[in-house]
Design brief:
Largest sheet: 5 strands, antiparallel
Order of helices and strands: EEEEE
Number of domains: 1
Shape: globular
Number of helices: 0
Helix content: under 10%
Strand order of the largest sheet: 4-3-2-1-5
Distance between the termini: 15 Å
Length: 71
């Protein structure tokens, strides 16, 4: 069964991720130093422009859940 991402989950960001949300940074690439084995906490999950995204506490940025892996 697939694991859904929910608030308080700990996740890592997959390489090639882009920023989401509704700000002008939407679609910009997430830097390599942010991806990989660094762990982040999900604050909230919402749909923006038809894409399910998670707000990560440590970054205060939205990232599409397709780029996240729950650990």
């Amino acid at each position: 069964m697939a694991k859904y991402i929910a608030p308080s989950d700990t996740v890592i960001i997959k390489p090639g991720a882009v920023y989401g949300g509704l700000a002008v940074s939407r679609g910009a690439g997430v830097p390599d130093y942010v991806t990989g084995l660094r762990r982040y906490t999900v604050e909230a999950v919402a749909v923006h422009k038809g894409v399910t995204e998670a707000l990560l506490v440590e970054l205060m940025s939205w990232i599409a859940v397709c780029y996240l892996t729950v650990i």
